[in-house]
UniProtKB/TrEMBL annotation:
It is found in: Membrane. This is Progestin and adipoQ receptor family member 5. Its main location: membrane. The keyword NAD does not apply. The chain crosses the membrane at residues 12-33, 45-66, 111-130, 190-212. Coiled coil: none annotated. The keyword Transmembrane helix applies. Keywords: Membrane, Metal-binding, Transmembrane, Transmembrane helix, Zinc. Belongs to the ADIPOR family. It is a multi-pass membrane protein. It comes from Chelydra serpentina (Snapping turtle). Zn(2+) binds at H148, H152.
Amino acid sequence: MSTQARHICYFFDYGALSMYTLGSAIAYSTYVFPEEWINSTFHHYYVPIAVLNTVISTGLSCYSRFPEMQQPRLSKTLRTLAFAYPYVFDSTPLFYRLYLCTGESCMESVIPVHYRHCMFAFLTCFIFAAHLPERLAPGRFDYIGHSHQLFHICGIIGTHFQMEAIFIDMNARRDWLLASSPLLSCSQTVGSISISIIISLTIIGAFSMALYSTPKEKCHILQACI
């Protein structure tokens, strides 16, 4: 695989991760929002802002591959920010529900599952940013136990708990949500996803074209980078 093709594969990977954040936002808007925030101004603009975050995340993460060799810390910071910020925004209603709200939604059985998801999400971000454990013992975790492996394992487990919590909320709060909150329209779901896909593909295409106008020695990135 050529260097440019490898970069482009990463671009699509970043675009898919950005779309995941939008899917989380749509699910949270429908099933997870705390009772106090239903039909609020923030609730109405929550999904549109998530669409914007998806675009920013795709663009920022794709751009982060270009300064990798000259400014590796900047590259890592941009890439971490590109995915941490949308997650924090998406999880704002959940964080409120877990730590600040006082209604019945705070006492539901799903709360421990949400806590597990948040714990593994934090571990995912921490391992990605810290490069542990290979940072403490270089050369000993090149094949097994590398932070990239642990990062994916924690991410998968966290996503499992996230989906489990959403399903529990969906079933437990269905009647109340149907009575208290309007269903998301097609434009808010299919429309938002379609717009995000089109814009993300456009961004990926633009950065892919930029790769072929960049000297090969500047395109080269170490195999360990993600």
